[in-house]
Every structure is written in structure tokens, then in C-alpha cells.
Amino acid sequence: MELARGDFLALLGPSGCGKSTLLRMIAGLIPPSAGEISFPADPAARKGIGFVFQEPTLMPWATAARNVALPLELAGMNRREAHARAVEMLARVELAGFEDAYPRALSGGMKMRVSIARALVTRPRLLLMDEPFAALDEITRFRLNNDLLNLWRDERFTVVFVTHSIFESVFLAERVVVMAPRPGRVVRELRVPAEDRDTPEFRTSASYAAHCREVSHALAAAMEAA
Amino acid sequence: MISRAQALRWFAPAVLGFLALAAWEWAVWAQGIPSYILPGPVQIAQTLARDWDSLSVSLLVTVQITFAALAVAASLGLLLAILFAQSRVIEMSLFPYAVVLQVTPIVAIAPLIIIWVDDVRAALLICAWIVAFFPILSNTTVGLQSTDRNLLDLFRLYGASRWQVLWRLKLPSAMPYFLAGLRISGGLALIGAIVAEFVAGTGGTASGLAYRILESGYQLQIPRMFAALVLVSGTGIAIFMALSLLSHLLLRRWHESADTGEHR
Lengths: 226, 264
Prior knowledge:
The structure holds two protein chains of two kinds. Chain A is α/β, with parallel strands linked by helices. Chain A folds into two domains: about 1-35 and about 45-50 and about 125-225, P-loop containing nucleotide triphosphate hydrolases (Rossmann fold, 3-Layer(aba) Sandwich), CATH 3.40.50.300; about 60-125. Chain A contains nine helices and six strands; from the N terminus they run βααβαααβαβαββαα. Chain A has helices at about 20-25, 45, 65-75, 80-90, 110-120, 140-155, 165-170, 195, 205-225; strands spanning about 10, 50, 125-130, 160-165, 175-180, 185-190. Chain B is about 80% helix and about 0% strand. Chain B contains ten helices and no strands. Chain B has helices at about 5-30, 40-50, 50-85, 90-105, 105-115, 120-145, 150-155, 160-200, 210-220, 220-250. In chain B, helix 3 packs antiparallel against helix 4 (about 90-105), helix 3 (about 50-85) crosses helix 6 (about 120-145) and helix 8 (about 160-200) runs parallel beside helix 9 (about 210-220). Chain B is flat, with a radius of gyration of 23 Å. Classes of the chains: A alpha/beta, B mainly alpha. The interface of A and B includes residues 55 and 60 of A. Chain A: It comes from Roseococcus suduntuyensis. Chain A: InterPro entries: AAA+_ATPase (IPR003593), ABC_transporter-like_ATP-bd (IPR003439), ABC_transporter-like_CS (IPR017871), ABC_transporter_ATP-bind (IPR050166), P-loop_NTPase (IPR027417).
């Protein structure tokens, strides 16, 4: 499997097929048991990774701005500069005015926005997302889907997005990689061409439904083969 | 603004306490119980006021020992818990001995400590410390171990140093546990100090409230005994309230235990 700069790739599969494990291996959190993950020779490539977990994973004792500033502060940036960048990033995810709010005062969707802001504050080249919107209600999920796509179109970072929702994978990604369990493996890759995706009503269009059907067949075949 | 529920929380126990005291006073008076068996609350209050000079000196002694023991227990407990969090081997080798220290009744070892340690105050402090130490150690250890795994991964992803993980992640997550341990230990330090004073039985002016209770018992000055007892309980309540307030102030902005309800 290859990943090019600016790709938006979704890893789709049933639970237990190793989607999250693959994501963690890419992040360098766990070593691969066989094979290897190679990065471009540029040493900055591996450094610039942002990770969004299933849960918002915020520090409850810190304000939204301090949570977002964390990666910068850990890297040694002084507090004022890190705070300024965090405030800017919060505004990008439509949370201007919530800088001093503590996580428990925020809704589930807002917490996820903070989490995304934290992942993007270092301007990573690669954004890894592990079923980030699975726990949210549908209305919030659709909004965050749209906002994520807008951020991606503006900044063109590379995204690997783990999900078990066919609809979400087709809506978000250009490349949908279908995985199967026991043993966890990649079975198929489908493309969602840009000319289809860029239509304004993509979510309710016929081509969207067709892509969903195709992906769903691929997934069913993968499950059957397992 | 004080809400109705909050007012009730103070008012209801106050009324109940007053009624109980009134019933006690009335029973003592109506039955003609002599004061060397059971004095009434009014007489106890009078004794407390009359003997305040000598009792307050003892109160100060007990309070000093209690707080010194609590301070030592809190700092040593915290340090040792941090050490445990750094190394599994250290934790596994030392923790059983901390348990031994905890389960051995303080009354049983206090005489030994008083024999071994020449300075009586130091001996009392050690006894109170032994009792107060364990809740802080065990709570903080659990707190340091229950850090959110994902947050640990996140810190690792951003290349955080061991020190950054401890200072920015593990210690703040362990804070509510530490404070809960501190609240338990506050009361225990007082109990430890009182028990040790009973065993030591120090005479003279520099002795604590427990000795006043013993002394009054021997002399059949039961009202004075009760007065000293009131001071012991009062001290315990004051310590508990002070530590609860500290905990509330430190946690109110983020932790569920200190939720004031305004966010719901």
C-alpha cells in the first residue's frame, strides 16, 4: 500500500481487522511484527504526524487552548507563542471564544474539534484519524465531515482515516481501502474520483449511492472470504 | 447566592444537634445524674471556658504533631508513589512493606517507638506518620497508574520526555486520588497522634489532649475530660473541612468529584 502526499485515504473494515493497529504502526506507537513502514528520506516526514483518537483524549485539567498548545509546548515552544498558535487553530475549527473553556464544559462534537485542532496545530504533513467521529450523533458527524474536508482542501495534508462506516468512507476519502479480519489484511482498494466528490450535493447524489454500493459489495466479499 | 438545598445542609444538622444537646441537658437535670458520671453540655462548655488556658496549650501540641505528621506523610507518600511509578521493580519490592506498616496496629508498636526514640515529640510524630502515610501512598500510586492510555500514547507521539510525562500528565491525573488520600490521612494523623499520646502518657505542660483526657479520668474530673474530647473532635472536623475545601478549590474547574452542578 502506498500513500502519496495530499491523499485522503480511508481504511474500512469490520472490527478486529487491524485498522487501528495499522494506524498505530504508521504513527510509530507500535512496531510492525513483519514487513516495514517506510517514509520519505526527508527526516521531517516522520516528525510531522498528527493523531486523532476515537475519544477526544483531552487533558481534563487544562483549558481548550492549553490542550491544543500541548504538542507545541512539548516540542519546547514558549508558552505565549504556543498559546497564540493554539487560539488561531481553535478559530480554524470554529471554536473561537472557547479558548478558556475546560473540556467538561464542551459538548462531544466540540471536544472532537479541540482534538482535531490539537492534531493540526503542528502543521503535520500526515494526519492519522482513528474512528474519530464514531461516538458522535449523526448531525454532528456530518458537520465535522464537511469541516474536515474543508480543512483538508485548504491545507492539503495527507489523511489516513479509520472508519467502519461505508457512508463516511465514501464521503470523505478519495481512496477507500477495504480490510478483512483473521488474519487482518488489505483486500481491495476503490477510488472515488474528484469529479464526483466535488459536486455540491455529493452526499445525496446518485454517484455517491453507487460508490457506497460498490464499497459495500467489496466489504461483503471480504467478509465472506474470511 | 446560597440555595435552599445548601441552607438545608447546614440548618438541618444544626437543629438536630441543638435538640440532642437540649435533651441531654434536660436528662442530666431531670434524673439528677452527678457530674462525675455524666456532665451536661452546659457544664462541659463552662469547664472548657474555665480551663481554656491549660487545654489550649494541649490542643496546640496535638495539632502541631498532627500537622507535622500529615505534612511528612503527604510529601513522603507522594515521593514514594512517584518512585513507584518510575520503576515496577521498586514498587514490587517496597509495597508489601508499606502494607505491613499499615496493617500493624499502631497501639501495638507505639510502646516500642517510644522506647527507641528519646525525644517524645519525635516518637509521637512517627506514630502519627505511620498511620497517615499509607492512604496517601496507595491512593497516589493508583492515581499515577490510571493515567489515560491514549494520552500516554499522545505524549509518546510528540516525543515527550519522562519528566514531561510525569509533570504534565501523570501528576495532574493523580491529583484527585492524592487529595482523596489526604482527606483520609488528615483524620488518621489525628487518631495516630492521640493514640501515641495515650501510650506515651507524657506529663508536664507540653503534653497533648490525650494526656488531658487520661489525667482528668484519674482525677474524676469528668467535665474536663469531656471538654478535652470536644476539642479532639472539633480538631478532627476542622481538619476534614479544611482538606475538603482545599480539594474543592484545586479540582472544581475540571474534576467530576468537585462538580458544583453549574455545568450540567
